Amino acid sequence: MENKNKTPKTRFAIAHKPDYILSILVLSLIVIGLIMIYSTGWITVLKQTGGSSDRNGFFWTQLLSFGLGLTGWFIASKFHYSNWQKYASFIFYGSLALMFLVLVPGIAVTVNGASRWVHIGPINFQPVEFFKLGTILFVAAWIDKNRAKLNRPAEGLIPIIIILIITMSLVVILQKDMGSASVLAAAIFSMYFISGVSMRIFMMALGFMVASAVGLIASSQYRLARYMTFLNHTEDPTGSGYHINQALIALGSGGILGRGLGKSLQAYGYLPEATNDSIFAIIGEEFGLVGASIVIAIIVMLIWRGYRIVRDAPDNYAKLVACGLVAWIGFQAFFNISAMLGIIPLTGITLPFISYGGTSLMASLFGIGILQNISRYTKGDIPDENRGLRRRNSRSYNTHTSNSRRAT
């Protein structure tokens, strides 16, 4: 028989401890990345210096970036998420200004025909990583502000299309970086999808994005050649298909358990970008199917924890920001790993938290700090009479079990 005197439940957004499991998963990926960079970085240095040095500068630079990123993570985790809404426009325009630095002679660094890096004194960074974060914060603020207009084509659909055109064009045209443009588009559409927009309007926007992507590929000989290489990578294994074939060789030669840490053969000049874009292939070679599967499992668990934070976010803006951040990390990992497996064309983007790349690591950790701050205010059901108990009993937060816990 139902208890009619049962205490009614209410939603709450009282500050509690953050999602520490999220932290453990992120740190696990970073440790794996540092181990792999330590294992292979010196080989890259040896090759770059013609054998005159084997000092693993890649490892020490990544370790420094981790320290700076950890500071940013801590600051962002303590900074209330609602403040980002106030400054979203300034952050976006600031990150936009950084993007144009790749056009400035003397500080722009061009590698393989693409200007994606900026070098100012001792500082070397990739502006697009900050642009991803700035765009997510800006789009989340815009959607939250205009959520009542989203189902009106002129006020909801057209503006989101304009935002897509601007962001994708900037990344593709300025930096020739289709991979980062794809990640940004996926993050924007993930936020747009959960915003409450009608499926008809969403599908119209999605159709436009697909058509734009096809147009961008077809309009560039370089991008079209990369797509054709993906379709026919076995026809020219020593030319255009060299990178993907070497990645598949690395993954295949690892077998079930791998060759062992530090025993990669592909890292010795065969596989391009062994510490950066192709690091997942080296993981597969040194630790086999088991090691590669563990990395994928950690990433999936990280995305799952992020999804639960999105689900229980305290308000609409927090939900949108959390969704954008999780989509950014999730899709970037998916695109990187899929490219190494030959499922999609090579993207040239890093594997989050694992690949060598200080800017990517620092920007991603700052994003995790924002996500962790949101996790401190996730909502759950507790009896009305026990609201104060949550403050007194702030045990380590677990997104599912803590939200359903009752006082006894």
Brief synopsis:
The chain has 408 residues and is mainly alpha-helical.
Structure description:
By secondary structure, the chain is mainly alpha-helical. It has one domain (14-392). It has 13 helices and 5 strands. The protein has helices at 20-48, 57-78, 82-99, 127-145, 153-175, 178-193, 199-218, 221-231, 242-253, 279-311, 316-340, 358-375, 387-392, and strands at 9-11, 108-111, 114-120, 123-125, 381-383. The strands form 2 sheets. A 3-stranded antiparallel β-sheet has the order 2-3-4, with no helix packed on it. A two-stranded antiparallel ribbon has the order 1-5. Strand 3 and strand 4 (123-125) form a beta hairpin. Helix 5 runs parallel beside helix 7 and helix 11 packs antiparallel against helix 12.
Which structural traits does this protein have?
two-stranded antiparallel sheet; mainly alpha; three-stranded antiparallel sheet; single chain; disordered N terminus; disordered C terminus; 408 residues
